[in-house]
């Protein structure tokens, strides 16, 4: 069995056992963290931080969690809503006047957070993602693909710029700056939207699925996914220094499992973790208010969206390209995060859910 490092409560033995099984099955490296009542009951890691299996995955190894980053950006929006500085029912153009162009005057803030704004595709060059002004100007001039609010289509790269520009117009700070000052800093969370060169040594680059190379591209996992006009994103793009340095608040967040679970424990614990209040209980519940339920036009599968989070029964969370996952169960005051550098094909990747089930076994024992 693969060597697993870290610590865990004996009631949660199934979690490190499941991570070891994934590494034994060929995964390069990964980490899992489970928080209950705002405290870690599992914090484990194993494997390697590089495809050549020469650099061990360490306690402070960080990885790009891709779309799990959306939950961090959503949390920033929820904080501003809590403070009365952002109205989810207001037109986006109230905060960002240029956005009203091309028939978007009636797009509401909640449409951005729930993938119903009609702007799902990034159609510009990948290089434009690295320049905030260029990316947001492009999106401000784009016409919606459907009447906003009437349908959902996953905004895989665009959501972060859309929500992020609204946040910037309100606060004068980028999403990365706001998140660092108002969320990660107070909690002591090692999560970054926009990564500096001082942290490069800690990064575990993404490893393509077996049989694929760094030209492997992101894509929807549903069989009924509609043809897309979106620019293809390759693994080599996500592994580039330009990607790390940029703020792409839908997809370029770097952290470890511990940091993801710590931050998202806020939603599991009524907005307070470790004595630090970031959200009100009402703000946490706001995230679970259903904004859309039905077929996602882009993913080609059923979806339920709250304000910035996917909804799964009473739980909420989201996954990232390559396998990362955050799962929050407020009823159990549980937050679980899984991060990995080993990508798998989306349609055949059940790793995150297997680890959620292992964590739920531990909760049953804890609550018995």
UniProtKB/TrEMBL annotation:
Region of interest (Disordered), ranges: 199-228
Entry-linked Pfam families: Beta-lactamase (PF00144)
Keyword field: Hydrolase
Domain of life (superkingdom): Bacteria
SUPFAM superfamilies for this protein: beta-lactamase/transpeptidase-like
GO molecular function: hydrolase activity
EC annotation from Swiss-Prot or TrEMBL: 3.-.-.-
Residue intervals of the Beta-lactamase-related domain: 28-355
InterPro entries: Beta-lactam-related, Beta-lactam/transpept-like, Beta-lactamase/esterase
Top-level EC class: hydrolase
Designated name of the protein: Serine hydrolase domain-containing protein
């Amino acid at each position: 069995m693969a060597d697993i490092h870290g610590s865990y409560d004996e009631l949660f033995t199934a979690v490190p056992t499941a991570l070891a099984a994934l590494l034994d099955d060929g995964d390069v490296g990964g980490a899992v963290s489970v928080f209950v009542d705002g405290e870690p009951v599992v914090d484990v890691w194993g494997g390697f931080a590089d495809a050549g299996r020469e650099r061990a995955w360490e306690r402070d190894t960080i990885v790009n969690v891709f779309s799990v980053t959306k939950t961090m950006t959503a949390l920033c929006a929820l904080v501003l809503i809590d403070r009365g500085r952002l109205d989810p029912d207001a037109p986006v153009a109230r905060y960002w006047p240029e956005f009203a162009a091309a028939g978007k005057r009636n797009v509401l803030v909640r449409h951005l957070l729930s993938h119903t704004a009609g702007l799902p595709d990034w159609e510009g060059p990948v290089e434009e993602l690295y320049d905030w002004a260029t990316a947001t100007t492009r999106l401000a001039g784009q016409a919606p693909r459907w009447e906003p609010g009437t349908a959902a289509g996953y905004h895989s790269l665009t959501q972060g710029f859309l929500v992020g520009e609204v946040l910037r117009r309100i606060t004068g700070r980028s999403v990365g700056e706001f998140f660092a000052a108002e969320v990660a800093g107070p909690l002591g969370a090692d999560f970054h939207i926009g990564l500096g060169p001082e942290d490069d040594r800690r990064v575990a680059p993404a490893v393509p699925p077996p049989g694929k190379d760094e030209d492997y591209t992101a894509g929807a996992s549903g069989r009924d996914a509609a043809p897309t006009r979106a620019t293809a994103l390759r693994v080599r793009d996500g592994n580039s220094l330009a990607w790390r340095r940029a703020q792409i608040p839908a997809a370029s967040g770097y952290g470890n499992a511990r940091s993801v679970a710590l931050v998202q424990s806020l939603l599991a614990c009524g907005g307070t973790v470790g004595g630090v209040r970031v959200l009100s209980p009402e703000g946490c519940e706001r995230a679970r208010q259903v904004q859309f339920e039905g077929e996602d036009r882009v993913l080609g599968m059923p979806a339920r969206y709250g304000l910035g989070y996917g909804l799964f029964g009473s739980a909420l969370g989201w996954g990232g390209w390559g396998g990362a996952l955050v799962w929050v169960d407020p009823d159990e005051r549980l937050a679980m995060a899984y991060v990995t550098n080993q990508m798998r094909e989306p349609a055949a990747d059940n790793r995150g859910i297997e680890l959620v089930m292992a964590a739920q076994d531990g909760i049953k024992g804890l609550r018995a």
